Amino acid sequence: MMNDLMDFDEVLARFEPVIGLEVHVELSTASKMWCGCSTTAGAEPNTHVCPVCLGLPGSLPVVNQSAIEAAIRIGLMLNCSIASWCRFARKNYFYPDMTKDYQISQYDEPIAFDGTVTIDVGGEPFTVPIERAHMEEDAGKLTHIGGSGRIQDADYSLADYNRAGVPLIEIVTKPVTGAGARAPEVARAYMEFLRDAVKALGVSDARLERGNMRCDVNVSLMPIGSEVLGTRSETKNVNSLRTVEESVRYEMRRQGAILAAGGRVKQETRHWNEAGYTTPGRSKEEAEDYRYFPEPDLVPVAPDAAWVEQLRESLPENPVSRRSRLRAAWGLADREFDDVVGVDGALDLIDATVAAGASPAGARKWWMGELARRANEQGCGLDELTITPKQVAEIQDLVETGALTDRLAREVFDGVLGGEGTPAQVIEARGLAVVSDDGALAEAVQAVLAANPDIVAKIRDGKTAAAGALIGQVMGRLQGKADAARVRELIMEACA
Ligand code: ADP
Ligand code: ZN
Ligand code: MG
Hints:
Layout: H1 8-14, E1 15-26, H2 65-77, E2 81-82, E3 89-92, E4 102-105, E5 112-121, E6 124-137, E7 141-145, E8 156-160, E9 167-173, H3 183-201, E10 213-223, E11 233-238, H4 241-260, E12 268-273, E13 277-283, E14 293-294, H5 305-313, H6 319-330, H7 334-342, H8 346-355, H9 360-368, H10 370-378, H11 389-400, H12 406-417, H13 423-430, H14 438-451, H15 453-460, H16 467-477, H17 484-495
Parallel strand pairs: 11-12
Antiparallel strand pairs: 1-9, 1-10, 2-5, 3-4, 3-14, 5-6, 6-9, 7-8, 10-11, 12-13
């Protein structure tokens, strides 16, 4: 379904965009929010369930302490105030993925509130005001069989409650104004910041493509000069950095066209379609519809002030400061560094490889080249390859000392990734050491020169480019295990 769209620049000439981002982060605690069931994904359906997370009558929830700790640490990372006392709330609604018919969430007493984060938007700082971060639980997963795959025209639906009760932290911004043309990039950079922050905290796997983080993207426009917020749309469950950015841009253009034609934007939820547009979902409930009330089955949460201070002191480095520190320390070209930042996990892996002794340029070369290519082939994340930063540093060291050529190093990667053992074991088993013994090299060079008098004559004539063919032949004789620069030297010496 296509909507009328206004040109992006025209939107900016007439309106000020306002965005609001609600990000759900799935925590990586071992057990669920209110029971001891495992949170591990990918198990047989309905095997990680118990009376509590199935919502059976009479069962009672008990709060997960690690989830509270994670919520507080996230709140602190966002410079929020931490509630000294707060309660959970029941959010009542009916949907088959939530058998209790209510979700335990927080409403007017979030654990963390009133923060700000300064993010990096294409090299410029931008401050995003944070409304709150609160704790809640995830719902089960429905799979609709038949029809379009949506519930409306399905033949039947399958319910898996393994995910029901997995702890979530919802982080909500205040309305973000003043971003202007950068609003789409601000949304993306903010999501990227949250991803890096929760990863640094170690509280979530933070894999957007697996749904560990999802963003509801609120967008509205107000006429330039106005102070009154316009009506927003809310695009639900956007789950990649790219689509967070695109959905803001799209909604700005869609709403611009409606307002310019004298229409009114409807307050509604919308869906993002991979083809690059949004379609309407349901019209938005008001808070009253949920009949929020304090959860009677759980005691209030009252974190000890000294504990909160201790958590504050042990926070990891802020991702924005870390990036600028590494950008300066590594001395890579800006484009190279930006590429690293753009690949999930690459910054951490290169950092660890440098910590293990490799040069930043060497570490970058392997992770962003050879290893990125292999991860791509295997359809896995860079950090899921079965090679450690320490091993990459070892291999790079052997290349730098001349014990391996780049080509041999790639073979070592083959072996290590193929489960043949450590780099040293692979080198030993496959016989991958460089032939550095000048005697063996000279012998191979002599044989090749004798077999190619015509090329030798050309080189003697000054056509040194012809040496390439000879280097190739020498490498062939030595199964590629020679240092090409040394081979060239020997050939040039012999032809002099
Ligand atoms: P709901 O849960 O109903 O979506 P919330 O108030 O929890 O409502 O969250 C709405 C999000 O949208 C928040 O990030 C808020 O700052 C933002 N927001 C509120 N009003 C507007 C608006 N007019 N335009 C853009 N964003 C808005
Ligand atoms: Zn359970
Ligand atoms: Mg919302």
